[in-house]
């Protein structure tokens, strides 16, 4: 994470997996977005290192779920849910809005967010206030 005044850049740094989300990265993002939601940050730039922004859920992590206990699988699902819940209030409470850099203008932020939620391919996400 890099801060420049009220602007924070968060870089997913798992280029070997195309920045795919595993348990550890989801926990880290949950903690980071939780902290950023209350510290006065006005813009969050979310990007990825290497050749991809984020490939989605990590395939290896998903494969491992076949060998986990029911309790461990429930815990992993809770981790993913917690990450989603740490990010969504940034949009719904109006503290921070989302746009996709170089793809959508800020005035179309809800469209960009919907695009991302549908699994659209993005190069970078910019979360910003009005």
Keyphrases for this structure?
130 residues; 2-enoyl-CoA Hydratase, Chain A, domain 1; 5-stranded mixed beta sheet; 5 strands; globular
Structure explained in plain terms:
The chain is an alpha+beta fold and 130 residues long. It has one domain (2-128): 2-enoyl-CoA Hydratase, Chain A, domain 1. It is 40% helix and 18% strand. It has helices spanning 23-36, 59-64, 70-92, 109-117; strands at 2-4, 7-12, 43-48, 97-100, 125-128. A five-stranded mixed β-sheet has the order 1-2-3-5-4. Strand 2, helix 1 (23-36) and strand 3 form a beta-alpha-beta unit. Helix 1 runs parallel beside helix 3. The chain is globular. The two termini are 22 Å apart. 22% of the residues are buried.
Task: Provide a short characterization of the protein structure.
By secondary structure, the protein is an alpha+beta fold. The protein is built from 4 helices and 5 strands, in the order E-E-H-E-H-H-E-H-E. Helix 1 (23-36) packs parallel to helix 3.
What's the layout of helices and strands?
Layout: E1 2-4, E2 7-12, H1 23-36, E3 43-48, H2 59-64, H3 70-92, E4 97-100, H4 109-117, E5 125-128
Parallel strand pairs: 2-3
Antiparallel strand pairs: 1-2, 3-5, 4-5
Helix pairs in contact: 1-3
What is the SS-derived class? alpha+beta
Anisotropy-based shape: globular
The overall strand count is: 5
Number of helices: 4
Main sheet?
Answer: 5 strands, mixed
